[in-house]
């Protein structure tokens, strides 16, 4: 086993769900060691949290500037190699740019930035840096999503003509109807979250899943948002019609106020020879539809699956693979890239996916604000 990659973490302290997810994912394949970071905006809180999770405190820093300055003074074989950015959205761009400018690899939560213009600046910065950059669209790490991608690539369902992705959550419902509560949530603050809440947070996952599995790109879209209240600046719900070619069309449906829903991401891709369907809340089942044959169910760990799917499977058939494993598969792919090893281009979402995501988010907002019209993506 090669020496472990030295990982720094920015954000994700306290009871942050995303913090736990990334830390556990980094440990799963024994490729990383958390070496330092900035877990909280308050230095004392960062120290306290590092002690709680048993991370040495000598490389816990006041802020990112202090981390970069101190780490660059260390011998190359000792310094942090890659940083995970787990902060609120508005900090992604300045942190990622600072890290890239100084030669660090980056693993960044989505959306990669808060504007498409910032995303393009990061893309140019990465070209100069020549380092590895991953965007954690976690769901691409599930074994059966990877199987879906490979089956479509191999032509199992034939030419794609219809796509349907949905991401329904209900967690914002008790907040949005209370004016005082909604003023305390950073995802409803455009200065911190960017121009979109629902589509920027979860709709972009559905968009990414469509492009990841089909290998096609969305060319244009038409969007309709629901803000629920006139004084609320952020979308809570949206429906997006998409065109991926003259004869390839579909829909993305996303909501943060789908009352009672938990984490309802699902995707269905239909082609001339059949269809494939997958649901995040039942991630071990990939359904293959093929008239007039009976419904087929694919499950992880079996030898009939693709190499990419099996590479992301850690347990024998019948043992559930979950979201920690999915994120761990992304970290595994990044480790291979950092070490210069061979890897499949489906192992982790890249800067290109991050740029596409911001292009999508801004296009949905533009479509809605212009009166629900078709808007082309770059």
From TrEMBL:
Residues 37-137 form the Gfo/Idh/MocA-like oxidoreductase N-terminal domain. It comes from the Bacteria. InterPro entries: Gfo/Idh/MocA-like_OxRdtase_N, Gfo/Idh/MocA_oxidoreduct, GFO_IDH_MocA-like_dom, NAD(P)-bd_dom_sf. One of its GO terms (molecular function) is nucleotide binding. Signal peptide: none annotated. Gene3D superfamilies: Dihydrodipicolinate Reductase, domain 2, NAD(P)-binding Rossmann-like Domain. It holds the Pfam family GFO_IDH_MocA_C3. Residues 145-276 form the GFO/IDH/MocA-like oxidoreductase domain. This is Gfo/Idh/MocA family oxidoreductase. It comes from Flagellimonas ochracea.
């Amino acid at each position: 086993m090669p020496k472990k990659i030295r990982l720094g973490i920015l954000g994700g302290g306290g009871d942050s769900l995303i913090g736990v997810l990334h830390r556990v994912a980094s440990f799963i394949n024994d490729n990383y060691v958390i070496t330092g970071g900035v877990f909280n905006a308050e230095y004392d809180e960062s120290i306290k949290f590092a002690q709680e999770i048993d991370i040495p405190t000598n490389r816990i820093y006041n802020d990112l500037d202090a981390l970069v300055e101190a780490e660059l003074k260390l011998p190359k074989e000792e310094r942090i190699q890659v940083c995970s950015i787990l902060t609120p959205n508005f900090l992604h761009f300045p942190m990622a740019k600072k890290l890239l400018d100084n030669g660090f690899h980056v693993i960044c939560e989505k959306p990669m930035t808060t504007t498409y213009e910032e995303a393009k600046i990061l893309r140019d910065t990465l070209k100069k840096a020549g380092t590895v950059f991953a965007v954690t669209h976690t769901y691409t790490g599930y074994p059966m999503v990877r199987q879906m991608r490979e089956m479509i690539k191999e032509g199992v369902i034939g030419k794609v003509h219809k796509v349907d992705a949905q991401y329904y959550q209900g967690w914002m419902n008790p907040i949005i109807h209370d004016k005082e509560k909604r003023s305390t949530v950073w995802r409803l603050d455009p200065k911190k979250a960017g121009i979109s809440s629902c589509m920027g947070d979860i709709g972009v996952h559905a968009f990414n899943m469509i492009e990841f599995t089909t290998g096609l790109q969305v060319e244009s879209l038409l969007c309709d948002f629901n803000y629920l209240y006139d004084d609320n600046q952020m979308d809570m719900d949206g429906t997006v019609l998409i065109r991926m070619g003259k004869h390839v069309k579909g829909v993305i449906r996303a909501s943060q106020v789908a009352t009672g829903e938990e984490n309802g991401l699902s995707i269905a891709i239909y082609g001339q020879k059949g269809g494939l369907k997958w649901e995040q809340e039942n991630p071990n089942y990939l359904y293959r539809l093929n008239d007039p044959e009976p419904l087929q169910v694919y499950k992880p760990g079996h030898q009939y699956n693709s190499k990419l799917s099996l590479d992301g499977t850690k347990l024998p058939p019948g043992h559930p693979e979950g979201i920690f494993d999915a994120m761990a598969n992304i970290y595994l792919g990044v480790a291979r890239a950092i070490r210069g090893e061979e890897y499949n281009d489906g192992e982790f979402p890249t800067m290109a996916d991050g740029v596409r995501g911001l292009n999508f988010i801004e296009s949905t907002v533009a479509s809605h604000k212009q009166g629900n019209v078709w808007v082309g993506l770059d």
